[in-house]
Amino acid sequence: MAFDIAVKRIYETPDNADGQRVLVDRIWPRGVSKEHAALALWLKEIAPSDGLRKWFGHEPQRWAEFRERYGAELDGNGEAVAQLRDLLRHGKVTLLYGAHDEAHNNAVALAGYLLRHPRA
């Protein structure tokens, strides 16, 4: 089963085409109201650990290793991953993040992980 996953900055305007909107950051993004976020779920448990997030620091040269380390964390985070997979079985899910870098962030890494590991 192929998942329908999108990735979007939480600061972008919500759209009906987003499907279920899931914030995957551990920290609530500045300046975003709960109403604007229009979330189905805030799954902060699936975010990278504080230590990994700080080590990565959104430095593109660390991207490959970040994805590897985050994947290992996700492998050990079965409950949160299962919760997200369950949402994906019911239709499109848009993973939301607050970072400025649209190519190197935890939501992009998470989407890639889910597409590579569609079932547990």
Provide structural commentary.
InterPro entries: YeaO-like. This is DUF488 domain-containing protein. By secondary structure, the chain is of the alpha/beta class. The chain has one domain. It has helices at residues 34-37, 50-56, 63-75, 78-88, 106-116, and strands at residues 5-9, 20-23, 41-42, 93-97. The protein has a four-stranded parallel sheet, covered by helices on one side.
Biggest beta sheet attributes: 4 strands, parallel
Task: Look at the structure and give the mean pLDDT.
Answer: 95
Radius of gyration: 13 Å
Please, how many helices? 5
User: Which regions have little confidence, pLDDT < 50, spanning 5+ residues?
Assistant: none
Overall geometry: globular
What pattern of helices and strands is seen along the backbone?
EEHEHHHEH
- Helix content range of the residues, please? 25-40%
Number of domains: 1
Pfam families: DUF488-N3i
Protein name: DUF488 domain-containing protein
Task: Describe the structure concisely for a colleague.
The protein contains five helices and four strands. With 120 residues, the protein is α/β, with parallel strands linked by helices.
Keywords, please?
single chain; 120 residues; alpha/beta; four-stranded parallel β-sheet; 5 helices; 4 strands; 38% helix
List the helices and strands and how they pair.
Elements: E1 5-9, E2 20-23, H1 34-37, E3 41-42, H2 50-56, H3 63-75, H4 78-88, E4 93-97, H5 106-116
Parallel strand pairs: 1-4, 2-3, 2-4
Helix pairs in contact: 3-5
InterPro entries: YeaO-like
Protein name: DUF488 domain-containing protein
Pfam families: DUF488-N3i
